[in-house]
Amino acid sequence: MNKKYSIKDIAELSGVSVATVSRVINNNGRFSEETRKKVLKVIKKTGYQTNFSAKNLRMNKSFSVGILVPDISNYFFANVVQKIEKILFNRGYSTFICNTARDENKELAYLKMLESKGVDGLIIISGAKAFDISKLNSPNKIPFVCIDRKPKDRSNTVFIGSDHYQGAFDATNSLFQAGCKFPIIASHNRSSSSAVDRLNGFKDALSKNGLDFDSSRNQIVITTNDSTNAIDLLLKENPQIDGFFAINDSIATNVLSSLLRLGKEIPKDIKIIGFDDEPQDIHSYPTLSSVKQDTDKIAQVTVDNIIGLIDHTAITGESITIPVKLIQRDSSL
Amino acid sequence: MNKKYSIKDIAELSGVSVATVSRVINNNGRFSEETRKKVLKVIKKTGYQTNFSAKNLRMNKSFSVGILVPDISNYFFANVVQKIEKILFNRGYSTFICNTARDENKELAYLKMLESKGVDGLIIISGAKAFDISKLNSPNKIPFVCIDRKPKDRSNTVFIGSDHYQGAFDATNSLFQAGCKFPIIASHNRSSSSAVDRLNGFKDALSKNGLDFDSSRNQIVITTNDSTNAIDLLLKENPQIDGFFAINDSIATNVLSSLLRLGKEIPKDIKIIGFDDEPQDIHSYPTLSSVKQDTDKIAQVTVDNIIGLIDHTAITGESITIPVKLIQRDSSL
DNA sequence: TTGTACGCGTTATCAT
DNA sequence: ATGATAACGCGTACAA
User: Fold this and answer.
1) N or C: which end of chain B has fewer CB within 10 A?
2) Which residue of A has its CA nearest to B263?
3) Interval B142-184: pLDDT, tens
4) CATH 3.40.50.2300 fits B62-163+295-324, yes or no
C-alpha cells in the first residue's frame, strides 16, 4: 500500500520547492518546461492527489455544490438531479444531494450544514413555498438557482422551470382534438407553482374550447391509493366526462387503473394524458400519453447558471422557461 | 448581512482563547460552567458555524461518505440511497451521491475524486462486477461496504444484500400454490449477483415442484421496450406457460402489458409476480404482486457498518443477508 | 524561473 | 480551568 503524498513530498522528490509544484499543478506563474515534466512525472509515479480540505481552506472555495430535492425517489427529480450531478462532475464540482422530504426544518438543517461545508453554490429543486435563503448566516455569499418551483423573491436567484402552463394547455387541447367533449383535471392536494401553472393551462384550454371551469365538475383531487370509488361517484354525477388530464403520471396511472376497474374502455370511452413521461408509461396498458419535461435542457441550463453565478459571469433575476413536449400514446388516441 | 465568524472571533467576543472555545464546542477538556455559557451565548448570537475545511484538514477526517450507485432513477436504488443519506445526516455525516451509470471508468473517476475529497468511508451499491478498491492510492485507508452485488473479495469489506434467492423461491412457489403448472422466469440480459441468486431461487422452486429448468422453455430474456412479439412466439411454442416470475417490476409491467395486448386475462390465464415492489405496482391493472426488499433495514445496517468501520468498532469480512417479503396482489391470485 | 514565508480555521499538546 | 502555539496541506505575495 502506498502512503499518502503531500505537495511537500512531491517537492522533495522532484527537487524543487512546493511553490513550484503548486504552480505546475495549477498552471499558474511561470516555470520551465523541464521542471514541469519533472514534477508531473513524480506526481504520476506517486499518484499524488490534491488535498481538497487544504485547498478549500486556503482558497475559501470548495468546488462543491449542494442540491436540495424534495424526494429523490420521484422520477422527475431523480432524473434531473442525476443529470445535474453528471455535468457538475465533468466540470470539476462534486455534489451534495440532500433529500428534504418536503420538510422545512430539514431544509434549513441541510442549508446550515452545506454552508458549514462551504459549498460554492446551491441548487434548490422545488423548495418550500416560503423558501428563504436569508435564514442563512452568509446570505449574500452563497449563490443559488431554483428549479421547478418559483421562489418568493426572484431578484437574487435564477429560476428555471418547464413550461407547465403550455404543457397542460397542449395536453388538454389535444383531448378536445381527439374528440373529448368534457375533459377534467385530476390533481393532488399539494399546491406548488408548477401545479398552479398546470391548472391554469387546463382552464385556458377549456375556455378556448368553449367550456367554463367548475371545480366541482371539472376537477378531482386524488388523495388515496385507490381512487376507484371517488371516480365512480364523480362519473355517475357527470356521465359526460370523457377525458382526464392528470397532473402527473402517478395520478394518471392511478386514474387509469380505477377506470379499468370500473369497466371503462381506454381510450374509447375515456381518454387520459399524464405529466412527466415516466419510463413505465410505455408499459402500461394501454400505453400512457404524457407531457415530457426536457430534463437534459433543465440540467444543462441549471449548471451553466450556478457556475456562472459562482464565477460572476452570470447575473441573478433571470427566469428561464424550458419548453415541454406532448408525447401521444394509446391512452389519448 | 452578517459577516462570517471564525473561532477566533468567538474567542475575542467572549473574552477567552480559541482553545477554550474549541473545547466548549467539542465538549473536550475541562472548562467552567460559566465560560461554557458565555461562549455558547456568543456562538448563538453570531450564528457561528464550524468551518469544516479547517476541521477536516486538522483532523484528517471529513465527516462525509461517498455513495456509488449505478442509476439513481431506478426506484430501488433511489429508495435505499435516500434512506442511507438521511440516517447519515442524522449522525453528522454528509453524503456524496455519485451516479456511475454502470460505467467502470466513471466509477474509478468518482473514486479518485472521493479519495481526494477525503471521504471517511465508501458505500458501493451494485458496483462493477470486478469492483476493485485496490485501484485507489490509499487502499487500506478508506473503509467501504458493498450493497446488493457481491464483491470479488469480501474479506476487506462488509457485504449487505437482500435474500434474493429466497424471494425468487417464494414468489415462484406461490405461483405453483396459486395453481400454475408451468411458470417461467422473465429476466434482463445483465448478470449481477442478485440476478443470479434470483434465477437460482426460481430454478430450485421449479425442481421442488417437480419441474426441470430448461432455459429455452422456462426463461425469456426481455431486451426491448415492447416484448409482445417475443412473448407471443414463446407462448405459441409453449402453450402450457401459465405464470411469469419477473426479475424486476419494470420487466413485470413490460410482460403484463404484452400479455394484455395478446388478449390474455391476468391472473386467470397467466399469473405474474415481479420484484422490488415499486409504488406504481398498486396502480397497474390488475395490481402487481411483487417481492419487497426491506430498504429500511438495508439502509440502517449499511450506515451502522460503515460508521462502525470508520470508528473501528466494526470488522470486515461480514456478509449480511436481509429478508424479503412477498406482496401478493391481484396479478398472482 | 524559482524559493521563502505566511496565513487560511481548526484541534491538540504543553504550559501555567 | 485556561492560554499560547504548533501543525494540518495548500496557494501566493514577495524576494531573489
Assistant:
1) N
2) A285
3) 999 999 988 888 888 999 999 999 999 999 999 999 999 999 9
4) yes
CA distance A1 to chain B (A): 7
Residue A178 Cα, gap to closest chain B Cα (Å): 22
B8 strand C contact, CB < 7 Å? yes
Domain ranges for chain A, please list them. 7-50, 62-163+295-324, 164-292+327-332
Proportion of chain B above pLDDT 70, given as a percent: 95
| Nucleotide D15 C1' to residue A30 CA (A) | 16
> Phi/psi at A246 (nearest 5 deg)?
-100, 140
Q: Which nucleotide is nearest to A4 (CA to C1')?
A: D9
Q: Is the CB of B32 under 7 A from strand D?
A: yes
In strand C, the nucleotides that come within 7 Å of a protein beta carbon are 1-5, 7-13
Q: Residue A132: pLDDT above 90?
A: no
Tell me, rounded to whole angstroms, the distance of Cα B259 from its chain centroid.
31
Residue-level pLDDT at A284: 93
Which residues from chain B sit within 8 angstroms of residue A75, using beta carbons? 73
Contact A20, A39 (CB under 8 A): yes
Tell me if A64 sits within 8 A of A96, measured CB to CB: yes
Where is pLDDT greater, at B207 or B4? B207
- The alpha carbon torsion through A7, A11, A16, A22 (nearest 10 deg) reads -10
Query: Is CATH 3.40.30.10 the right assignment for the domain spanning B7-50?
Result: no
Contacts of B105 in chain A (CB under 8 A): none
Where do the H-state alpha helices sit in A91-179?
104-117, 164-177
**Residue of A52, A78, A256 with shortest CB distance to B116:** A52
* Predicted confidence (pLDDT) at residue B45 exceeds the cutoff of 90: yes
CA-to-CA separations, A278 to A246, A310, B257, in angstroms, rounded: 13, 33, 16
Strand D nucleotides with an atom less than 7 Å from a protein beta carbon: 1-5, 7-14
Q: How confident is the model at residue B135 (pLDDT cuts 50, 70, 90)?
A: low
pTM, to two decimals: 0.94
Question: Which among B49, B259, B283, B288 is the top mutation candidate for probing chain A, defined by the most A β-carbons within 10 Å of its own β-carbon?
Answer: B283
Separation CA B151–CA B129 (nearest Å): 7
End-to-end CA distance of chain B: 64
Name the residue in chain A with its Cα closest to that of B110. A89
pLDDT of residue B190: 86
**Once rounded to an integer, what is the mean pLDDT over residues B35-50?**
94
Confidence category of residue B139, pLDDT binned at 50, 70, 90: very low
- Name, in order, each residue with C-beta under 8 angstroms of B131's C-beta and a sequence gap of 6 or more: B107, B124, B146, B149, B151, B152
Residue whose CA lies closest to nucleotide D6 C1': B58
Domains B7-50 and B62-163+295-324 share a fold: no
Class of the CATH-defined domain B164-292+327-332 = alpha beta
> With an 8 Å Cβ cutoff, are A49 and B137 in contact?
yes
Residue A139 has what pLDDT?
46
The DSSP call for residue A215 is H
Q: Apex CA A227: angle with CA A222 and CA A229, to 5°?
A: 130
